[in-house]
Write the structure tokens for this entry.
Amino acid sequence: MTQATSQKTLLPPLLPMALIGAIVLAIAGAFAWAAGLIGPHRQSGGDIANALESNAGGPHAGYRRAHAKGLCLAGSFTANGAGSALSSASLFQPGTYPVIGRFSLAGGNPLAGDGRNVFHAIGLSLTAPDGQEWRMAMDHTPIFPVADPQSFQELQIASTPDPKTGKPDPTKMKPYLAKHPETKAFQDYIMKAPLPASFATATYYSINAFRFTDVAGTTRFVRWQIVPESTGPDLDKSKLASLPRDALFQEMVARTAKGPSRWHLQLVVANPGDVTDKATVQWTGAHRVVDAGVLTVSAVRPEENGQCRDLNFDPTILPRGIAISDDPLLPARSKTYSTSFTRRAGEHPGPSAIGQDMHK
């Protein structure tokens, strides 16, 4: 066999091997990029969870990193069919569907006092007979203090309380607010906004916009809100410091023992020109509003034995007919909640605040 003949017989096997090697490297590179091991640093759920933990004075093992103080709820959603005009989601078909959820207050301390001028919130999981789920995470304010995840992380760092004073360090907050006028606008808003004296008398907002697609294939941007049937007084903000630690949660437990609380799910359709990618911007003026049905909360339980304990209220878990919008906060919320869930799932929590009260 000549040298030339030998090279001809060797070359064909080398070419496919080289191609296979290139494909393997490309796949490995793609996984490494997706995992953040190569390329420029991309903000992860861990980055935001770390900032939340730091802001709360360190990790509170076993508890959610955001909205750590909570109370499980159970009930139902009765759809009247009107929501089908906007979305093909089966949960808008007339019927009654089971709901699991959670009332909560903002902050990373599960035993913090209720006398704080912070978000009052509700997380919900609606399940249709066909297994589709709609998870929501709503606050009692129609706007959010930041428009993107990087700003949220920076806010958590800047507003971390100084151990000496228990308050944010002005030398860190001042430059942050100068860079983020939207946060200053939110601070001014919440300073004046009413603070409900009961979880049952608050309106809760989706904060972010979503895409609703009907059976004909028409897609519209929608925000939603749940509006309570019950009314009641607001908290006196000048007396928040004297409010008992778990006053709001105890009030909800006592109220529910007497009967259910109800809210109307209102779907608000965007007008042309409404901002859909910034939760800092409120939609103002007249809008088309569709009353899609009634949420009923008929039971509440402490998290340690409630159905919400192992649920993650990820607002990107949506039924067919509803999809996320171009708001960058939505995927960031999903990543952060997932990180929080993973961390607390491997830890051993103590009792919740209301659980402590019930065992006294």
Remarks:
- The radius of gyration is 24 Å.
- The first strand starts at residue 69 and ends at 79.
